[in-house]
Amino acid sequence: MEINNFPSHIIEEIKNIWEIWNSPPRLSTDSLHLDDTELMNLDNIQER
Known about the structure:
Elements: H1 8-22, H2 29-32, H3 36-47
C-alpha cells in the first residue's frame, strides 16, 4: 500500500510523530535535579 493512499490527516499525524521521535530530547535543568555545583558546571560547558 502506498502512503499516498492514506487520508491526509493520517499522513500529517505520521509526520508529526516522526518529527517528535527524531527530535533531540528537550530536557530542562529543572528536570535533572542537579545541585548547585552541577548547575555551575553545566553552565560552564554550555558557554564554550
